[in-house]
Task: inverse folding
């Protein structure tokens, strides 16, 4: 069972587990996008050069139509890479379509020289898989289908002895191409995993496991600048009398309180919210696609109610937090602008012991 699972992982998940693969799949798609956008630009240049060469070189004239079609396809595909999203499935499908086109192009080139063993097709069998990060199972299907079509096509065109030589070469290099794709994918996927682990460590607050200040500012600025979020809510909260907790019970208790508060916030909010520790005892919750005051108040009330279960060494002392809230309605373009408003509301809340929740108002 261990061998079967290993083989499955290499063919379907590049040698890692399914959850690990899904976590970095979009990173792989983005990498494919940039690599193949550059390759398509190179294809445009190469096929343009080859087409122009047929106008001046009689030996290449028989391939003129093929070069022209290849140039037209490369230009259309290249344009699409400046329109599509980097991590879109459509971009990945175009890449596979381009690989299929290259194999088809190699078939036409081989057809013009039936007495010579195939070379262009063999080169594509080895090269194309090296530039695609995806489940090797898909590339195996691509290579096997391309090889089968090539052999069936060439069987009717080439002399039998040349075709037999091509058949041996194509079978061998199809297997080698699949193997190279598996090896290249497993190596590059592990680079993505390592980079992701480094990014997580860099962006994670050690005490709470939430986003740290740097990650908060970057992620919220990314949301504000992508144009898709028209409204949101930012909450800034901190622990009431936190200095007193540190002074009376020690910093170990203070750290424990911060850790519990962070874990509570991490469990309460999903991926639709950006949650993190700004510093000290101050936390930020940024919730997209809402600016309803009553909904924001209910969420803040739920935080206050949920954190009341956090205990202190002295049962007579109650743990509590205060929350300042600022509504985002598409005006601010920088994280700090909204933070200042929510932070102002927080200080207004802390100034009134009976008022745990305060919304920012223009006259503050």
Result:
């Amino acid at each position: 069972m261990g061998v079967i699972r290993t083989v499955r992982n290499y063919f379907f998940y590049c040698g890692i587990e399914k959850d690990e693969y899904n976590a970095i799949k979009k990173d792989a798609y983005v990498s494919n996008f940039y690599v193949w956008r550059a390759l398509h630009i190179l294809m445009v240049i190469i096929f343009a050069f080859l087409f122009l060469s047929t106008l001046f070189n009689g030996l290449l004239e028989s391939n003129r139509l093929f070069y022209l079609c290849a140039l037209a396809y490369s230009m259309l595909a290249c344009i699409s890479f400046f329109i599509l999203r980097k991590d879109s499935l459509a971009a990945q499908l175009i890449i596979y379509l381009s690989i299929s086109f290259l194999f088809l192009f190699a078939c036409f080139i081989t057809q013009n020289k039936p007495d010579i063993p195939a070379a262009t097709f063999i080169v594509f069998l080895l090269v194309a898989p090296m530039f695609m990060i995806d489940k090797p199972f898909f590339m195996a299907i691509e290579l096997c289908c391309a090889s089968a079509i090539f052999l069936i096509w060439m069987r009717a065109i080439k002399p039998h002895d040349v075709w037999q030589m091509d058949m041996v070469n194509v079978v061998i290099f199809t297997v080698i191409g699949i193997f190279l794709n598996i090896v290249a994918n497993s190596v590059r996927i592990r680079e993505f995993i390592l980079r992701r682990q480094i990014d997580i460590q860099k962006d994670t607050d050690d005490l709470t496991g939430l986003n740290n200040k740097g990650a908060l500012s970057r992620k919220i600025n990314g949301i504000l600048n992508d144009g898709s979020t028209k409204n949101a809510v930012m909450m800034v909260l901190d622990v009431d009398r936190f200095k007193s907790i540190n002074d009376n019970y020690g910093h170990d208790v203070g750290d424990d309180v911060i850790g519990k508060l962070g874990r509570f916030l991490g469990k309460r909010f999903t991926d639709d919210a950006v949650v993190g520790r700004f510093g000290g005892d101050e936390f930020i919750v940024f919730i997209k696609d809402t600016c309803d005051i009553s909904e924001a108040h209910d969420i803040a009330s739920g935080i206050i109610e949920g954190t009341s279960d956090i205990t202190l060494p002295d049962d007579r002392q109650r743990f509590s937090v205060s929350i300042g809230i600022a509504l985002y309605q598409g005006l601010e373009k920088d994280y700090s602008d909204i933070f200042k408003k929510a932070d102002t509301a927080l200080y207004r809340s802390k100034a009134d012991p009976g008022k745990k929740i305060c919304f920012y108002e223009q006259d503050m």
